[in-house]
Amino acid sequence: MIHVHHLEKSRSHRILWLLEALELDYELVVYQRDNKTQQAPSSLKKIHPLGKSPVVTDGDLTIAESGAIIDYLVQRYGQGRFQPSPEETAAWVDYRYWLHYAEGSLMPLLVMQLVFAQIPKKSPWLIKPLAKGISDKVSKQFLTPQINQHLTFINEHLLANGNFAGPWPSGADIQMSFPLQAVAAVRSLEPYPAIAAFVSRIEQDAAWQRVVDRAGPLTMPGQ
């Protein structure tokens, strides 16, 4: 039996989406964040030493990291679905690219944006104005231009292709779902209509709706 170790306000929902799309039975093991620190509970370290989520156990195997989990589930249970075949060279290369791009290129920027937005809120009142000034400067001069560049790049790909690679939803689409849903939660997607359509398509997907019914709606850290 597959067990998904699912932390609230984390990236686990996309793993549940893939499992629902694969129509696999699984058990959901839910963990709550600490109310003060918003960190995962130490009990997650019993499953994986880093104490992060998502983590999937399948028999004697423990698989961490969203990309590795998606790769494992698609390869073992996909029966040729959810990814292009290597013979479809361009689509296969796109699939591998977006599977790694989500966490390798896009999410670090989004996490930095979240961290810098939280710094003024967590700073002592005496230095709060200084912290806010630094945070705003970093966001304006570095983070926002970088993120906008990435969103334009993604939007153009989706305009040309409809989704990220292969049939809907491919493992790449599922991997890219969380960062784009995270963007949609904090800013208008009006300048990026193809991304908005992609996020809407996720929410209308029957397998995604089963995830929401079972695990609740996706929420983000800081919400």
Automatic annotation (TrEMBL):
Residues 1-81 form the GST N-terminal domain. Pfam families: GST_N. It catalyses: RX + glutathione = an S-substituted glutathione + a halide anion + H(+). One of its GO terms (cellular component) is cytoplasm. GO terms for molecular function: glutathione transferase activity; peroxidase activity. Gene3D superfamilies: 1.20.1050.10, Glutaredoxin (3.40.30.10). Its EC number is 2.5.1.18. Keywords: Transferase. This is glutathione transferase. It comes from marine sediment metagenome.
